[in-house]
Design goal:
Largest interface: A-B, 49 and 48 residues
Distance between the termini of chain A: 57 Å
Strand order of the largest sheet of chain A: 3-7-1-14-11-12-13-22
Number of helices of chain A: 20
Structural class of chain A: alpha+beta
Oligomer: homodimer
């Protein structure tokens, strides 16, 4: 950890977006209004699976106030009217078939949303219903109805073939990730081999800001797009491909984002809005309702089969797993989620043998994609539940079982991987201490209410796969600082943290730094805002850019002052040399002449892509979420009350402590919600709780009475000043910690989420032999 | 000159803005429409000079649809509510006094211009008229009425004190430029000393696009400004200073500009629009009428006294001059125009002694500022008229007299200056050849119509004073090229030429280059679009940026291919090595991973500012305009018909020949117009012809029957591929060439512009002894 006196890093300054956000002045995509802007609405399939016989949109086209109608007739003229992260399987609007209830069939741009909706009602679609399949085990059967009769076009070979070389080993599998390390015969040496199956429910991201974009393609050779989108550069690339337009004719601009949690990574509203704008010759706003959000992107439900070999003393030896992920009707980010889930299933422990197989199974449900934790939530649920189950089977305290097997600081998870950059035991001991875990036997029962405690350690390789990031820091003659980088402010506080890094390096007040609006025309290339990469990946690029600017300024001053640069320091836009202070502005004006100049520092981060690790490159950092819960279980009602919830992450160095805490606690609350409440419920192919009233999220009084977090600063991160990424870790341990606590309280092991009263009661009944 | 085979440079491709402009799709500032945008109008002084006793705007403020009223009461709260290039003397709205008819007294922002105008009519202003002075000789008398009783605030010391050390040697002088080189006693050795006085008329720039800006200061900490402005960075700096806002909170954006000719260099509409936007909390559009343009900025009228010592054989020895420039009521760019006029008055000839004194005199007329030629038009008029006059007095052919005295290629104009970078005799001989000057004795008279020919060489140090320029060239993974630089497209074709340079260097079709919109938030710093600096100054920065990007790409490929970079070439986004071609996109993706990357080349130009020359730095290049005219003078009516007009400039290397020709011919036509027609006529302090109907400009049939230009490519320019700047040179020789031709035809010497029939008749009468 840098031990210099710091003026900005680590200080509890107000977030740079705080004033705008609390006063309502902050601009989100929904706030953007363009002259002549039309409004889009889409017609969605009422069938889970059907062939489209005909579409008659003539009445809609004739309606006053309707400026464009988009059906498969229009998309036929678009060069490649399908999209997807890796496999280009999702049509802009349906062509031959619809594949889930909610699939987009047609779109209208009209003077207002009401007119657009009336026009949609006038579109006649004739469907031939087909059998729908919504269960992943059934969908992967060899005789299941097929979503795609022929493989989707545009498959990226690497992903299409997968590590195993097979494209579709089962039916409706769009991707398979497999890998193996260490000798397979390790199981033979184990004292015990345990095999358990876990079910993971499907959540919706439920970001408060809807999916929305404003697309302006009114001029033929120029696309301007404002989008609530986490990855503007990949979206630019996708749009260029779909519509056959050069990337330098497309500007994707990202205002503040009101939450995304992964769902806003790829194209969502953009292709429809652009196609309509081109047809209408006017800007088009396409804003989904909250209900449409449920139909647009979700987390992956999963079935996780985990087989673990251990010695009698609790030493882990081998783990094999098979994971089925529910990808829904289109592949979206599924391939990468599969890789991550498959990779992370062993958890942060030492094994001699790991084997993993993860399948993305397509079903006639809403498409699933990236979600906070990115496969790690699913795997932490299974892994950390099973660790406890094994400990109990072996008669070992789950804490001791974990402690014995945890990877050491600096130890690679698998050969070729980055070394562990947190002391895992330090975090675990902190949870135990904060929770009072060692005194859990003293917890009082309260009539039918029993209490217990559980622990868990969530684990993921953080910072994304092979994410290049570039940044630019400009300083004007007067010392005003411009920070140009592609990280979107999605609520996580990244603009605050990255600005603080720049201010620190340039010896400036943070108010002198302006974080420039993200705009692909001008912002340096960046892969996207995801995978807890803002400080760990972009932070490195920004830090290098700031240091480059600093170096140029000091070198310039050294030349003017005729002394070595290392005698100089930069503070408050003055050059300090011992007790002397030299104002920079006149020095610059005198040298460069004219009315100004600017120093431009560029920085980048490039992944090591050594191809040594099972994935393409050693990970940027390890994101760890340690957690513990104390629950009270009412054995009469099955009601679980989380009385204490404690999470801790390792920020490496907390650039902005409040932001770190906010990320950990926000993530933990999302974990709590998945543990206890959230689940998208399908009745056949129909989502039955896809609205704000019936979709259960935590209310204020669902919060644990004792809900705390501690941000560790272990100092081993790759980011500026030793920082590591935050934002996902806090979610990872929560569900399993609570499940473990329930088991601790009442001896009931629940292996399916959410941990509902019904499941508790069923578990109690089974335990009592009522079944 | 680079002799490589070139694919873009020098080819007659279509201008990159041609399609947009002929189809009407091109976006100018006037096309920008923002939601909630208000419209501004201003109240102007009806007096040439008056003290303001009171302003009552209460009725205007109360009018429905009026959102903001700006008077001195409101500007009192602005940190520094005055502006100006060097001397901050122009108030946003008048405070104590008005100083010319048209001076802005109040402004209104309303729902529409009609409402704004009605509100202005309701503002009551009480004036105390003061004596106005509109004649520069009278204005500089010690007892003349004073425009500023106390020196304006914010005087930049360097300019305030001038070379002579005196600030106000005469009354109403806002700046004086003086310099001297060589022995003053050189006059004593001369066989003859001639002293002549020339009067130069005042033109308006008459750009077809009006002065206009859209100012959005609805959010406290953010200014967005779209402006038809040649110098967005200096304007940003001025706005930052006026309103006390950091430069990184201000974005100045420059769409296409519909002509400026110098008038759009500094703040014009921006301060009023911004002040109104802040008051109203809404965007404000402020667009002047053509008539208001006449009241906003003009050329400098001038009186030029030139004393020249020569030997009997025509060898020039010494030249002293005193120039009075009419600055109008506010200083604007006057100090720099004074430096340039004073510096250029000797013309492109060799002298042993030069002495110059140039005064900016303030009068109660519209402010004068930069104008195509920038002092050089005034001085060419005097210099090139006097060369002919001296030749005739000595009985030498004016062509021979010029040829004898011209500076040689490579010879510095004065010690410390850049060497002459055109062969001046080559250009002169070209004019003589093209015009048939040597056979002018054979020209037929036609009754009262007499014919004659005249020559002239206009001369200016080009590229601006101490203009730093930065540029950036980005190339995406797919080979799309982004060119970011601050040069505005003002009709001169700079975007076409600069894009061609980038395309050439990167081996790409020009269509792959996108010239990014000029926006101070994102575009690298640049001093401005003026002084024929686009190719000569920015061109160097752009070329270096492109070469840097090229170098990075070749180095990258060399590393991947394991060979030296100098074995590689770049063409069509492939690496060529002998007969091999390697596609770059997959090579980049493989190396950097992720979905993309970009190569970023930065380049800059910095003036040499050696302080050796009389000005701050040796000039970037010499802009020469050679010209010749054949006239027919009707001795009965005084009518002058220009039958032939030939101009030639030296492009060094014509990056885009059509653009070069357009610049030379456009400039020549402006020169013709000044020679024969244009003049702002004042009756006292009232401009009497400040509108499109009465202000005489050339009509289609005023064009010479034989009007031609030739673009020389002598290859000695500092710009890319040997290019030099164009755009002003063509204007410089025209008026004196025509005056010289009139003298050649009828023996009448006119020393005052325009060359009107009245002046011809008066000259004929004087010659015939009628006077």
């Amino acid at each position: 950890m840098t031990e210099l006196p710091l003026r900005t890093i680590g200080r509890p300054d107000r977030r740079i977006d705080a004033g705008e956000k609390v006063s309502g002045r902050a601009v989100y995509t929904t706030d953007i209004d363009l002259p002549g802007m039309l409004h889009a609405k889409v017609l969605r399939s009422p069938h889970g699976h059907a062939r489209i016989r005909s579409i008659d949109a003539s009445a809609a086209r004739a309606m006053p106030g309707v400026h464009a109608v988009l059906t498969r007739d229009e998309t036929a003229a678009i060069p490649m009217p399908v999209y997807g992260y890796f496999i280009k399987d999702q049509p802009i609007v349906a062509t031959d078939k619809v594949r889930y209830e909610g699939d987009i069939v047609a779109a209208v741009a009209a003077e207002d949303e009401g007119t657009a909706n009336r026009a949609l009602a006038a579109i006649r679609v004739e469907y031939e219903p087909l059998p729908a399949v919504t269960d992943i085990e059934r969908a992967s059967d060899p005789d299941a109805p097929e979503l795609f009769e022929k493989p989707p076009i545009g498959i990226v070979p690497k992903y299409g073939q997968g590590a195993s070389g097979e494209l579709r080993p089962r039916r409706n599998v769009c991707y398979r990730f497999s890998y193996e390390t260490g000798p397979a015969d390790a199981f033979a040496e184990c004292d015990h081999v345990f095999e358990d199956v876990f079910h993971f429910s499907r959540m919706h991201h439920l970001h408060l800001e809807p999916f929305v974009c404003i697309a302006d393609w009114s001029r033929e050779d120029r696309i301007e797009l404002w989008s609530s989108c986490q990855n503007p550069f990949p979206v630019r690339k996708e749009i260029a491909r779909i519509f056959g337009i050069a990337e330098n004719r497309i500007a994707v601009r990202v205002p503040y984002i009101g939450g995304g949690f992964g769902s806003k990574n790829g194209c969502k509203t953009e292709p429809v809005a652009l196609a309509l704008s081109r047809l209408a010759g006017r800007p088009v706003r396409f804003c989904l309702t909250l209900e449409e959000g449920f139909l647009t992107n979700t987390q992956h439900a999963a079935i996780l089969k985990v087989k673990t070999g251990v010695m009698a003393d609790g030493t882990l030896v081998a783990r094999e797993s098979e994971i089925l992920l529910d990808s829904g009707a289109y592949s979206d980010g599924s391939p990468l989620v599969a890789e991550k889930a498959g990779y992370r299933i062993p958890g942060p422990y030492r094994y001699r043998h790991i084997k993993t197989d993860c399948y993305c199974v397509m079903t006639n449900t809403a498409p699933a994609g990236p979600f906070r934790g990115f496969g790690g939530t699913q795997t932490s649920w299974a892994c950390e539940s099973q660790i406890d189950m094994i400990a109990h089977r072996l008669g070992i305290d789950p804490y001791e079982m974990r402690r014995k097997n945890l990877i050491d600081l600096g130890e690679p998870f698998v050969p070729g991987e980055s070394g562990m950059d947190s002391d895992l035991r330090e975090g675990l001991d902190l949870v135990v201490r904060e929770l009072g875990y060692r005194r859990r036997d003293e917890l009082q029962s309260d009539g039918p209410v029993k209490r217990g405690m559980g622990l868990a350690i969530g684990f993921k390789d953080g910072g994304g796969v092979n994410k290049p990031a570039l940044a630019r820091v400009k300083v004007s003659t007067g010392g005003d600082i411009f920070l140009q980088c592609g990280t979107a402010e999605i609520g996580q506080g990244a603009h605050t943290a990255l600005s603080a890094v720049v201010a620190e390096r340039l010896g400036a007040d943070r108010s002198r730094v302006r974080y420039m609006p993200v705009d692909t025309d001008h912002t340096p290339f960046d892969q996207g805002t995801n995978a807890s990469s803002a400080i760990s990946v972009m932070g490195q690029a920004v830090d290098r850019a700031a240091l480059s600017a600093r170096r140029q300024i000091l070198d310039f001053a050294a030349e003017k002052l005729g002394c070595p640069a290392d005698e100089l320091d930069l503070a408050d836009w003055e050059i300090r040399r011992g007790n002397e202070a030299h104002a920079l502005a006149p020095m610059i004006m005198g040298h460069f002449g004219g009315t100004g100049w600017e120093f431009v520092g560029e920085g980048f981060h490039k992944a090591k892509n050594s191809h040594a690790a099972p994935l393409e490159a050693p990970c940027v950092f390890w994101e760890i979420g340690w957690g513990g819960a104390q629950v009270a279980v009412d054995t009469e009602t099955g009601q679980v009350t989380v009385e204490k919830l404690f999470v801790t992450g390792d920020a490496g160095r907390a650039i902005h402590p409040l932001v770190c805490r906010g990320q950990d606690e926000g993530a933990a609350l999302m974990g709590l919600s998945q543990a206890l409440f959230e689940r998208m419920i399908y009745d056949g192919s129909r989502l039955v709780n896809g609205d704000a009233l019936t979709y259960r999220v935590p209310l204020a009084d669902d919060l644990p009475a004792d809900f705390r977090s501690v941000t560790q600063e272990q100092g081993h991160g790759p980011g500026p000043f030793g920082a590591k990424g935050m934002g996902e870790g806090g979610m990872l341990p929560v569900a399993s910690a609570i499940a473990n606590a329930i088991h601790d309280a009442v001896g009931v092991r629940i292996t399916e989420l959410p941990l509902s009263p019904e499941r508790v009661l069923a578990g109690l009944a089974a335990k009592n032999g009522d079944r």
